[in-house]
Amino acid sequence: xxxxxxxxxxxxxxxxxxxxxxxxxxxxxxxxxxxxxxxxxxxxxxxxxxxxxxxxxxxxxxxxxxxxxxxxxxxxxxxxxxxxxxxxxxxxxxxxxxxxxxxxxxxxxxxxxxxxxxxxxxxxxxx
Length: 127
Hints:
Blueprint: H1 18-22, H2 41-71, H3 73-83, H4 100-126
Helix pairs in contact: 2-3
């Protein structure tokens, strides 16, 4: 296999970028639109859309949800799943459902298990 030789127009001195072909349109720090975009122009469309969406929701929202539940339950479940957090953390106190007797038995077990550890700690402090 032989290495391909670069074509003459591919050499380092023959680079034709679009910028080199047209030149630099503006000097550094100079804009083609010195006045810029009018303030609020970009957000007007978004605000108008949200206003229209709110009006439609207030008028038809509950009925639309009910229609989707009845006609496209999978789409409804997808929307519900999409708005839930990606990690749903449910915390429940495991001791909540224990009776007083069961709680007392757990405390006594912990006391027996902790006794040797506590004795070693106390002995270490005494030395």
